[in-house]
Design a protein that fits this description.
alpha/beta, globular, 19% strand, 52% helix, 5 helices, Rossmann fold, 5-stranded parallel sheet
Length: 132
């Protein structure tokens, strides 16, 4: 499994990475902004993206819009990270097909629950494919 963390706050990236590494063996990629995140998505095709909304250079919402334009959203699960709840932004994000939201500060059990859901979805897709 491949996980991408797109977050401008280095401490948040480190925290998320440590939570994941403690419980899962997977490839973890990091990006500090949406531009770097798009490159990683195109090059590495992650299964799951933890995406901060408020970042410099290219924010999370605009990264999602660009991913949709490039047809990169269909095969990846996206969990949005945000400290701010804004209904208008949330509605835009949901319309783009985001799978879930996590409010900051992050809690270990919430992060692990999201990863577990993605792993289960991947297993279910693989079972459907092999059953045919």
């Amino acid at each position: 499994m491949k996980i991408l963390i797109v977050e401008d706050d280095e401490l948040q990236r480190i925290l998320l990475r440590k939570i994941i590494e403690k419980h899962y063996r997977c490839e973890i990629f990091e990006a500090r902004n949406g531009i770097e995140g798009l490159r990683v998505v195109e090059d590495s095709q992650p299964d799951l993206i933890f995406l901060d909304i408020w970042m410099p250079i290219l924010n999370g919402l605009n990264m999602l819009i660009r991913m949709k334009e490039k047809n990169l959203l269909g095969s990846v699960s996206v969990v949005v990270l945000s400290a701010i709840t804004n209904r208008e932004i949330a509605a835009q994000i949901i319309a783009l097909g985001v799978n879930d939201f996590l409010l900051k500060p992050l809690k270990n059990d919430q992060v692990l629950e999201r990863i577990s859901k993605v792993i289960e979805n991947i297993k279910n897709k693989n079972q459907v494919i092999t059953a045919e």
